[in-house]
Amino acid sequence: MRPVSNYLSLVKFSHTVFALPFALLGFFTAVWYGKGVFSFGLLVKVLLCMVFARTAAMAFNRYLDRDIDKKNPRTLHREIPAGVITPAAALIFVFFNAIAFVFLTWHINRLVFFLSPVALLVILGYSYTKRFSFLCHFILGLGLSLAPIGAYLAVTGRFDLLPLLYSISVLLWVSGFDILYSLQDEEFDRKEKLYSIPVVAGRRKSLVISALLHILSTAVLAMAGYLYRQGWMYWMGLFLYAGVLYYQHRIVARDIATINRTFTLVNGIASILFSIFAIVDMVW
User: Fold this and answer.
1) CA-based Rg of the chain, rounded to a whole angstrom?
2) Torsion on CA atoms 84, 183, 208, 271, rounded to nearest 10
């Protein structure tokens, strides 16, 4: 029996913090703006769905990239290439989490259940995209952007503009920071004929593209705030969100080596700060 910590490390469980706050934001948006009924049990199901889906996607990515990871000095010590977890065990782990995700959606409502295969197609399909398209960053962004709209659908059973704007912002935000993250592997990816924006555009243009995506992410949240007449706490959260992203670009532009040290912390803080302030603003 392999320790649970090995599987948590395999899927970088700490990175769940990226989308989890936006899932909470989508849930409470549904309760306050969508006139949904608050249920603690439903909230737990929504959060578990997000965790199971994200875990399945990350484990599948590690499984599919196992041979690539063996060649890359940065990823050589990941669990599968290092022999800590076998490919078969990783695939079983993917299957378990995917089934758990679909099972939970059945117990939420029929809409999210019928959409669950589409969600799995997006989040699992991302792992293939860097083999043929530099747009892979946007597929990853699309996968994480399902968190706020999915949580909203779980409560209300219908689509609305506000959670859709949140999802668009998440797509832009995640795509932007994934471009920064992929700068670490620019030379390796070019050598292995893998696709990414740094490979096709180079470092300088990639930094610009990432910054533009984060500006657009902030602008979409500002549009949501304006259209729905959000209060001062929402705008404070947005100001902090923009400030944290600006700080990220400043430090990465100076030294790419800082990406690994700041990636989880900075983006986690951005997500948590904005979501907390936005949620409190609704309750206030």
Assistant:
1) 19
2) 20
Structure tokens belonging to residue 69: 């990871």
| Distance (Å, whole) CA 245 – CA 267 | 7
pLDDT one-digit tens code per residue, 254-279 = 877 777 767 778 888 999 999 999 99
What's the predicted TM-score (pTM) here? Answer: 0.95
Structure tokens at 38: 């608050």
Which residues are within 8 A (CB) of 249 and not within 5 positions of it... i.e. 6 or more apart? 180, 207, 210, 211, 214
The residues, ordered by sequence, that sit 6+ positions from 186 with a Cβ below 8 Å of its Cβ are 196, 198, 199, 202, 203
Considering only CA atoms, which of 177, 67, 59 is closest in space to residue 126?
Answer: 59
Q: Count H helices and E strands in the chain, helices first.
A: 12, 0
> CB of 2 within 8 A of CB of 89?
yes
Amino acid at 248: Q
The phi, psi pair for 72, rounded to 5°, reads -95, 120
| CA–CA separation, 151 and 33 (whole Å) | 13
Number of neighbours of residue 212 by Cβ within 10 angstroms: 12
Query: 10, 56 in Cβ contact below 8 A?
Result: no
